[in-house]
Amino acid sequence: MAIDITVLLDDQPGALAHLGEVLGRAGVNIEGLCAVTSGGGQAEVHVLVQDLDAALPALARSGLAVTSEQEVVVVPLKDRPGALGTVTGRLGEAGVNITLTYLATGTRLVLAADNLAAARAALGT
């Protein structure tokens, strides 16, 4: 099961490296990532992981707090113009609102939605 975890980091040099090192030492593969600074001295980081049972305790031991976790849909995406519109258009037609999206390794689209079951049905996953 693909899980997106959200971690708030201080917006300073080395903070993202520390997150990566903590997960790496715990044997957790980062399959996707999105980091955005808020301008308030913090960055919101979304990390796609499969091994939540290893990620959560490792982050807690290091003092990095997970502010949320949610199951997400991960969809292979062709690396070509219009691919995003095609995939997300199916969700729009199904009345599904996307609440989070970013790209993962291997040109895969990560999606959270207000109705994950409907999103899966619309995408055939």
Characterization of the model:
32% of the residues lie in helices and 36% in strands. It is an alpha+beta fold and 125 residues long. It folds into two domains: 3-70, VC0802-like, CATH 3.30.2130; 73-123, 2-Layer Sandwich (Alpha-Beta Plaits), CATH 3.30.70. The strands form two sheets. A four-stranded antiparallel β-sheet has the order 2-3-1-4, covered by helices on one side. A hairpin with a 3-residue loop joins strand 6 (98-104) and strand 7. It is elongated and about 40 Å long.
The value of Rg in angstroms is 15 Å
Round the mean pLDDT to the nearest integer and report it.
95
Query: How helix-rich are the residues, as a percent range?
Result: 25-40%
Number of beta-strand segments: 7
CATH class label of the largest domain = Alpha Beta
* Oligomeric nature of the chains: single chain
Distance, first to last CA:
12 Å
Please state roughly what percent of the residues sit in beta strands, choosing from under 5%, 5-15%, 15-25%, 25-35%, 35-45% or over 45%: 35-45%
List keywords for this structure.
alpha+beta; Alpha-Beta Plaits; VC0802-like; 125 residues; 4-stranded antiparallel sheet; 2 domains
Layout of helices and strands, plus pairs?
Elements lengths: L2 E8 L4 H11 L6 E6 L4 E8 L2 H10 L4 E6 L1 E4 L6 H11 L4 E7 L3 E6 L2 H8 L2
Antiparallel strand pairs: 1-3, 1-4, 2-3, 5-7, 6-7
Helix pairs in contact: 1-2, 3-4
Outline of this structure?
The protein folds into 2 domains: 3-70, VC0802-like; 73-123, Alpha-Beta Plaits (2-Layer Sandwich). Helix content is 32%, strand content 36%. The chain has helices at 15-25, 52-61, 83-93, 116-123; strands spanning 3-10, 32-37, 42-49, 66-71, 73-76, 98-104, 108-113.
